[in-house]
Every structure is written in C-alpha cells, then in structure tokens.
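Protein chain data
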Amino acid sequence: MSDFDRLMAWQRTTEALGQVAGRTGWDQEAIMPRGSAPQRAEEMAALEEVLHARRTAPELGELLAKATAPDAVGEANLREVRRSYDRNIKVPADLAAELARVTSLAQGQWAAARAKGDAPAFLPVLAEVVRLRREEAAALAEGGDLYDALMQDYEPGGNADQMAAMFDAMRPRLVALRQRALDGAPAPRLSGDFPKAGQLTLAHEIAGAFGYDFQRGRLDLAVHPFSSGSGMDVRITTRVDERDPFNCLYSTIHEVGHACYEQGVDAAHLLTPIGRGASMGVHESQSRSYENQMGRSEAYCGWLFGRMRDVFGDIGLTSEREFYRAVNAVRSGFIRTEADEVHYNLHVMLRFDLERALIRGELEVDDLEGAWNARFKADFGVDVDTPANGFMQDVHWAVGLMGYFPTYSLGNLFAGCLMAAARRDVPGIDAGLAQGDPSLATGWMRERLQQFGALRLPVETIERATGEAPSAEPLLAYLEAKFGDLYP
C-alpha cells in the first residue's frame, strides 16, 4: 500500500466511528429513554476520546507528511484530512471529551427546562457549555478572532465580518418587505382537525416524492427536527402539532433536503473525508431550496391543497390561491423554525449577534435572556412571553453549536443562486411541482451539487453548480417578486 492508501484506510475507520457517534446522538434525541442521559454522556465522551486520539495520532501526521494524492479526488481528501488534523491537534483531548460529555447532558437538561419554561434550571449547564467553547475557541484561534475559529467547523473559509456584511446588505430590503407584508391584508389561516396519524402519513408520502430513500433512512419525532448521518444510513426527524400541520410537513421537507444531499453523494466517496456535505451553508441551501422555493411555491401549493383535503377533509380554505397565501403568510412570531421567508433571516441575525458576543466575552450567560428579549422586542415589536419562545427555543447553544447560526442565512443566499440556475437550465420545474413531483428540480440538485459531496470548497461548490459567483441578489429578487405578488 502507498502512504496515501494507508492514510485513506486509517481515515475510513475514523469516518466509520464518527458515523457511530452521530447515530448515538440521533438515538439520544429521538428515542433514548430520558433516564439514560447520565450514562449516554459518558458514552459520548468515550467515543470522542477515541475519535480525538485518531484525529491527532502521530502516525496520522506522519502519513499526511508523506502521502501524495493520485488525482483531484485524492487531493480533496488530503485537504480535508489536513484541515481536520491541524484543527484537532490544537484542542487538548480532555477538553474535547469534556465538551462531548457536557453537551450530551446539556441537551437533555435543555429539553426538560424548555418544556417547563424554567430558564434558571438551564443556565448553569449553558454557562458550562459556553465556558468550554470559549476555551476551545482560544486554542483554535491562536490569538485570532474566537468566533471565526468556531465558524470553521461549519463553514470553512467563512468569517464573522463577511457574515455581518452580508446581513447589513440584506437587512434593509428584508425590513422593507416585512413592513409591506404586515401593512397588507392578513393571510387566511387553516382550520379543522389535523390528527397526528394523518400528518405523518402525508409527511412520509411527501418525503418520498422529494427523493428521500426510506431503504436508507427513517422518519421519527424529536423536540427539534434534524437530519443525521450520511451515505447508507441517513435519518430524519420532524414534530407534530395537531393544530398546525404545516409545522410537520415543512419541517419534514426541510430535513429531507439535508438528507437527500447526504444520500446523493457519489457512493465512491462514502466513508471518506469528502463523503459528506461541503459545509453547513451548502447543506442549508438544499433544505431551504426544498422547503421554500419548491415546497412553498405556488405550483406545489396547488397540489398540496388538494392532497391535504384528501387526508384531512375540510381545512377551512376553499381555493388554491388562499392555500398558497396561508402557506406563505408573513406574521411576526417567536419561533425561527416556523418563521416565514421574510422574517427568517431576521431571526438568524439576532442569534448571530448574541452568540458572537457570548463567545467573545462581551455577553455573559446570566444576561442572555434579557439581551434576547430586548433585541427581539426591537426587531419584531413583540414581548417574549416564555423562555421556550425566546432564548431556549433552539437546541443549538445547549449542544455547543456556536458559529452555526449564520450558515442558515448563507444557505438561503446559496439557495437563491441555485434555484435561479435550476429554473434557467430546466424547463418544466413548475409543471412538475404542480403535480406534486419535484424531481426535475431535485434531480438538477443531485447532478450539479449533491453527488460531489465535499470535493470542492463551499463557494466553489456553488460556483460550479450555477456558473456564477454567489450573491444575495437572486434571493432578494425572489423574495421581492414572491411577496410583492402575495402582498400587492
């Protein structure tokens, strides 16, 4: 075996162990008994110790120094292994294990405290998560910006100043569009009975139509919907509110976007460093394209209107246009995952500013709830009523995902670019959506982006798929055209 072959064999085992750790995390959120949390935290810490040891092993460093890639795919794999190795050797093994242990415990404590609206019960463990992530950031940054150091885990090459500039460019047009919609005629609402069984039946049907392969995955329930895994085992979750079926259906489509990316990676790349999404921003481009630009399109809403009446009977709306307006209603609300396309990025901007301040030490955990509530009132004009509708609504901070939130808006920006290119390249996308068939659009995504995994860096991934450098203009033009029509 060549040095490169030995390196890839080493990495294949590491990647397989990483998949086991990810599946253990899925189990914890989806089906693990709550009483198992203390033991699961120790198990997660043990797995992280093993993974960290493999990712920082001297023999891995020696192989990296000697290995020569045989081709462009090999070069990409070497790039990803080097990036991981260079980052991991900066983080002490005991810190990596402690982060895994504490965030595993924090996840359960967050869920319990959120259900009770008990912020004081959650703050101590959140403070410990923030302390550990600051320590990790300091090790990674080596004197540079702490938040930028954490962002590299989710968006290689990105930085906070770039994100802030993007948000500054988007905010005025989003705020103007928001005001136009809020000043317009209110959108109609669904009414009727939406039993859990019917929602899940329809969610399974829709997931399959969007290309999710149930032979290599499954759909379960969780407090916060998510997708987990890659290749031959990619699992998704959703949640059910019997008063609001859109919550279940559109959460499912969103997670299917993530899952189809992972299922769509070329099988030759599986259990290699490039056998996964290129970044969280690129990942989010898939989920937001599927959920919004396909699933909330006027064409698809026309089909879904009829299908929902088949499943649920009277839904309180009498026309496809009314249904389309209900699906895309613009309303100020507390919950990011339920936000309309106009408000969504404003939710992300709030979280970006707060978590950046937390990691930089400009904001402490004890002051987080007050800072959140004041910012939310300023941005959305509404007083937060409970912690579950405020700073405790997302699982991300409990599990230490600081630096992750801005990738949601970056994903929206990428989605705008991708769908503009797909509509340019593929006639008939809307005709298919009107029949409940998104395959023309999802097929374009698989061919132009998904199959390549992390072969290319994020920006190049979008450029190769679309033929153009990414910008916010396609997204903003799409939003202004869509909501200008809905709120004339």
